[in-house]
Amino acid sequence: MINRMAQRPITAKIDLHLVKVLHTVIAERSVSRAAMRLRSTQPMVSAQLKRLRELTGDALLVRSGQGLAPTDAALAMLEPAARLLRDAELLFAPQQRSGAFDPASACLSFRIAASDYLDPLFLPRIVERLKREAPQAQVELHPLSAEIDYRRKLAAGDVDLVIGNWLRPPEELHMGRLISDDIVCLVASDHPAASGRGGGRGWTVERYLDSEHVAPMAFHAGAPGVIDEHLAAQGLQRNVVVRSSHFSLIPLMVQRSWLVLTTGRLFCSRYVDALDLRIVRCPVQFPPLTYYQLWHDRTHAAPPLRWLRETVRDVARQLSSPERA
User: Fold this and answer.
1) N or C: more exposed end of the chain, with fewer CB within 10 A?
2) Per-residue pLDDT tens for 282-307?
3) Secondary structure of the chain: what % helix, strand, coil (to 5)?
4) How far is CA 253 from the centre of its chain?
5) Could you give the CA distance from residue 258 to residue 192 in angstroms, rounded to a whole number?
């Protein structure tokens, strides 16, 4: 006699909440923290983790030092679980079926990967706007760094939107231009470039290139970055002595040294009143620094994400307007 129970597909044993537990436990690497994020209890999450171990045939989390570490099999499940949860959100959202979107009642997660080069107020203003207009939505802010493959994450649904600046944005992605900003130098008030003589004719291309520079880490390994890429195209090279993945801390480094930061005026203008810094012209002619938001074709028509992109665009334009706060 055929055992019909044994023939049941694996999907018959799994509910969507169990997938969410799987993703949260692996991402948090802690049953207690996962319980907090899921608004559940530790015993309940432990029982669900036990069931997941039985279904997958893997330990998923193992002891490592003072905490827990995901197994290789668990790490391999993380991305498919995130993609499944994201697709389920879009599939079952009433707004997705009707073509409309009501942010006030939305219970979605918005995932944004962004650099902090644009303006130190940019990401806080986006969070402020999203929480005001979509109070039930969750917001995840991911960094852009050499370790982040943002193209893959967009394709997999791990992030919904990527915000940054590129000389040539990837052609396979949808692109929306946010703002353009002129490139300037940020220096300490006692830097020679900030003096009347040094900041005038004395602040030459040669002196600029010979100065000690601080620069952010590139978006991906081996990339020179927008500034150095443009310099290289002109056969020029500056003397970068410090590279930092913490862009918002660079003005503090500049204030206490003769380092030169080359970036957009909008970012620099946020610090000159609070710190002992000066904005000076850049002797090298650069094209405007243009910031874009990028997204994948898989989410192009989704009403919630279209609303997200429009919100990001509005925040960027408000910050760049002359009467901005």
Assistant:
1) N
2) 999 999 988 999 999 988 988 899 99
3) 45, 20, 35
4) 23
5) 9
